[in-house]
UniProtKB/TrEMBL annotation:
Residues 193-222 are annotated as: Disordered. This is LTXXQ motif family protein. Residues 1-28 form the signal peptide. Keywords: Coiled coil, Signal. Residues 204-222 have a biased composition (Basic and acidic residues).
Length: 222
C-alpha cells in the first residue's frame, strides 16, 4: 500500500514536467503575438534557413513583409468568423456551446492524463525501485511542486523572466532525478514524456482509451 501511494504521489510531478510549457504560455499576458516565444523561435528558424539558402537581405525583407500580411489577413478572417458566429447564435446558444466545448476539453484532458499516468506506472514498475528510491522520488516531487506554487504566485515583468525561472526549477528537478535514477531510466522517462505512443520495451499494452498525450508537451522539457 505504501508503494502504491508513493507512486501515485509521484505521477503529478512527472506530468508537471510535460504540461508546464502550456501553463507558462497561458499565464503570459496577451499582447503582440509576434513577441510570443514560439513566433520568435520560428523567426530565428526562418532567418537560419534564409542564411543557409543564401537569400539576400532585400529578398528576406520582402518575405517577412509577406509573412506579416498573411498574419494580418488571418487575424481579420478570425474576427469576421467570430462576428458571423455571433450573428448566427443567440446568447443562450453561444453560452451553451462554450460550456459544451469546455466539458469536451476537460474530458479529453482527463483521458490523456490517465493514459500518460498508465504509461508512467508501467515504466516505474519496470524499474523495480526499492522503497527508499520511491520515497526519494516523492520528495523530489514535493520540492518541485512547492517551487512551482511559489513561482505561480510571483509577479514577473515579462514572460521571458517567468520562463527563465521555470527553467531553473526544471533543471533543479532534473538534477534531483539524476541522483535517484540511472541515465538509462532518465532517457526512458524523457522518451515516454515526448512521445504520446512511446512504451517501455516489454510493455506492449495500449494505454487506456488509446488517446494521444497533450499536443503541447515540449520534447525538450521532459
Amino acid at each position: 500500500m505504501i508503494r502504491l501511494t508513493t507512486r501515485k504521489l509521484l505521477m503529478p510531478a512527472l506530468l508537471a514536467i510535460a504540461i508546464a510549457p502550456l501553463s507558462l504560455a497561458a499565464s503570459a499576458a496577451p499582447g503582440d503575438e509576434s513577441r510570443h516565444p514560439w513566433n520568435e523561435r520560428h523567426q530565428e528558424q526562418r532567418q537560419a534557413l534564409y542564411e543557409r539558402a543564401g537569400i539576400d537581405e532585400a529578398t528576406r525583407a520582402a518575405l517577412e513583409e509577406a509573412h506579416a500580411e498573411h498574419r494580418e489577413a488571418q487575424r481579420e478572417l478570425r474576427e469576421q468568423h467570430h462576428e458571423r458566429v455571433n450573428d448566427i447564435l443567440g446568447e443562450e446558444q453561444h453560452e451553451a456551446l462554450k460550456a459544451a466545448m469546455r466539458e469536451m476539453h476537460e474530458e479529453r484532458h482527463a483521458e490523456r492524463r490517465q493514459a500518460m499516468q498508465e504509461r508512467l506506472d508501467a515504466l516505474i514498475d519496470s524499474w523495480g525501485l526499492d522503497e527508499a528510491e520511491r520515497q526519494a522520488l516523492h520528495d523530489a516531487r514535493e520540492a518541485m511542486m512547492a517551487d512551482a506554487r511559489e513561482l505561480r504566485d510571483q509577479e514577473f515583468d515579462n514572460r521571458e523572466d517567468r520562463r527563465a525561472a521555470w527553467l531553473e526549477i526544471r533543471d533543479e528537478h532534473r538534477a534531483a532525478l539524476a541522483e535517484i535514477l540511472t541515465d538509462e531510466q532518465l532517457a526512458e522517462l524523457r522518451e515516454i514524456m515526448k512521445s504520446p505512443h512511446a512504451h517501455h520495451k516489454g510493455h506492449h499494452q495500449e494505454p487506456h482509451g488509446g488517446h494521444h498525450a497533450p499536443e503541447h508537451q515540449a520534447n525538450d522539457d521532459a
